[in-house]
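Quick sanity check, Flavin reductase:
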Amino acid sequence: MKKKLLVLAGSARKRGNSSLMADEFIRGAKEAGHDAEKIYLTDKSVGGCLGCGACQRNGGQCVQKDDMNEIYEKVKNADVIVFAFPVYFYTWNGQMKTVLDRLYAVEPLLKDKTFYMLASGQAPTEEYMTTMIDSFRRYIGCFRAGGNTEGGFVFGYGTDKPGDVVGTSAMEKAYEMGRAL
Ligand SMILES: Cc1cc2nc3c(=O)[nH]c(=O)nc-3n(C[C@H](O)[C@H](O)[C@H](O)COP(=O)(O)O)c2cc1C
């Protein structure tokens, strides 16, 4: 079945390591016949969640009027959602986390999706990414009631400057993961 893929690219570096991994994932997915769209969060103006709870009382409308409205629409229409971002201080970078918090407004929309994580980081091994694996699993687990799925994750280890990930096994893994959708 043809799937719709939405990649949320969290790094401000559009040709950075996480973004390049996302491109490999997309290349694989497109070769397998799926549709893919990538959004650079750095191009979007998204305010932090206010925690006001209005969205929980009014059917999922956030009181903030910003670019998140466009992202909600794209999330709604996607079968597969990919979080591609750099690890900052053992967790999501700020732009990525801001969007994840705002998705609180549309929790029911996240119930039957498949989620992937493509994360870049300077650290050399998975040992440094345990917090990230935990965060990813627990985040999507918040919407598990409807049966969403963990598709998988890839870390671009030991990457610092944009492009460091090129030629590493992380790029191959990202491609293969997209291809296997
Ligand atoms: C503020 C900041 C915090 C960072 N914290 C971590 C970290 O905790 N773990 C890690 O492996 N790399 C860390 N890094 C390195 C980046 O994750 C790494 O350079 C990554 O390849 C950047 O991905 P990008 O090219 O997609 O932006 C940090 C970088 C910055 C700027």
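Posting the structure with no commentary besides this: Residues 11, 13, 16-19, 86-90, 120-123, 128, 159-160, 162 surround flavin mononucleotide (CB under 6 Å).
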